[in-house]
Specification:
The protein folds into two domains: 122 residues, Rossmann fold; 93 residues, Dihydrodipicolinate Reductase, domain 2 (2-Layer Sandwich), CATH 3.30.360.10. The N and C termini lie far apart (46 Å). The chain is 39% helix and 18% strand. It is α/β, with parallel strands linked by helices. InterPro entries: Gfo/Idh/MocA-like_OxRdtase_N (IPR000683), NAD(P)-bd_dom_sf (IPR036291).
Length: 233
């Protein structure tokens, strides 16, 4: 694609986060939202209607239909994590650039397959991790890396939480192992781990202590881990 060419995006899956990304695509100067696909045409049309897109985007009742559209240059994929491998690889094989929602895969092996598919088909891969790619994050890294200003990092405490309603705990895909097997760790916990590794220049800890299973309470589910590095914590 030419550098000044408008990227025509398709969205595969009408998850809640897709509303925000659809708005961002529309606001980006070199992007346009071209199509939306769900498992049924009714869901795709409802998503378009609820987000002021009716009449301005194509709607498809299957993911395959969107991937077969030659006018779609790139796809944003906010599907359950268990579906990422299949649809991300297929998107790459259809020569679609890929913006994949986090967590990108269930494990490193699956992510390697996705990256290999993108590389072998000459398409770009991008994850949906906003904070990691934000200019403020780069500026913060400059600040904490300057020991004269910040000192040595000895302890890092990183926490990520969200309110969980009864409906969320009973029916959300993030508490269903067959759809999002990583649970609280994949949804929020990896933010904490990622921030720690980011602050430590991605040096791996020498020891990790973690709960053997998620803690389930009336307030929701949680996970806990301690990372130990040589010389500090």
């Amino acid at each position: 694609m030419a550098e000044n060419q408008t990227v025509r995006f398709g969205i595969i899956g009408c998850a809640g986060i897709a509303r925000k990304v659809a708005r961002a695509i529309k606001l980006a100067p070199n992007s346009t939202l071209y199509a939306v696909a769900s498992r049924s045409i009714e869901k795709a049309q409802k998503f378009a209607g609820n987000n002021g897109l009716s009449g301005t985007v194509k709607t498809y009742g299957s993911y395959d239909q969107l991937l077969d559209d030659p006018c779609v240059d790139a796809v944003y994929m906010p599907l359950p994590t268990s579906l990422h491998l299949h649809w991300a690889v297929l998107a790459a094989q259809k020569k679609k650039h890929l913006l994949l929602e986090k967590p990108t895969a269930l494990d490193v092996g699956e992510l390697d397959q996705i990256l290999e598919a993108c590389e072998s088909n000459g398409v770009q891969f991008m994850d949906g991790i906003m904070w990691l790619h934000h200019p403020r994050t780069a500026k913060l890294k400059e600040f904490i890396s300057e020991s004269n200003h910040f000192g040595q990092i000895n302890i890092i405490r990183s926490t990520s939480t969200k309110p969980a309603t009864q409906e969320f705990r009973e029916s959300n895909i993030r508490v269903k192992p067959d759809l999002d097997a990583l649970g609280a760790l994949g949804d929020l916990g990896w933010y904490c781990i990622g921030a720690i590794l980011w602050a430590k220049d991605y040096k791996l800890p020498t020891l990790v202590n973690a709960l053997p299973d998620v803690t389930k309470t009336l307030q929701g589910s949680s996970c806990l881990a301690l990372h130990h590095f040589i010389g500090n914590h």
